[in-house]
């Protein structure tokens, strides 16, 4: 059984959350997400406009999904991409 975390990226300029996606945990999402963003992606162009949040979880054993009452802040993309450039 695996519990997957549900994440979403908040766009400050639009004032809304992007389509949710799953990850094993926040650490793996923070590690893997920068590598999945093409160089011309809007998040790379203006990372200060975007934040990563955990919004819930999903159990592949039960099929149940739960959502947090309030999104849980994980990190700012401007900080996440700074560490990506160092690696």
How would you sum up this structure, described in words?
The N and C termini lie far apart (33 Å). The protein has 87 residues and is of the alpha+beta class. The longest helix is centred in the middle third of the chain and has 11 residues, at 26-36. Strands 1, 2, 3, 4 and 5 form a 5-stranded antiparallel sheet that branches. The protein has one domain (3-86). It contains 3 helices and 5 strands; from the N terminus they run E-E-E-H-H-E-E-H. The radius of gyration is 13 Å and the shape is globular. It has helices spanning 26-36, 42-45, 77-86; strands spanning 3-11, 16-17, 21-23, 50-59, 65-76.
What keywords describe this structure?
5-stranded antiparallel β-sheet; alpha+beta; 3 helices; 87 residues; single chain; 41% strand
Topology at a glance:
Layout: E1 3-11, E2 16-17, E3 21-23, H1 26-36, H2 42-45, E4 50-59, E5 65-76, H3 77-86
Antiparallel strand pairs: 1-2, 1-3, 1-4, 4-5
Structural class comes to: alpha+beta
Helix content: 25-40%
Distance between the termini: 33 Å
Q: What is the tally of beta strands? A: 5
Low-confidence stretches: none
Secondary-structure element pattern, one letter each: EEEHHEEH
Question: How many domain regions?
Answer: 1
* Strand residue percentage: 35-45%
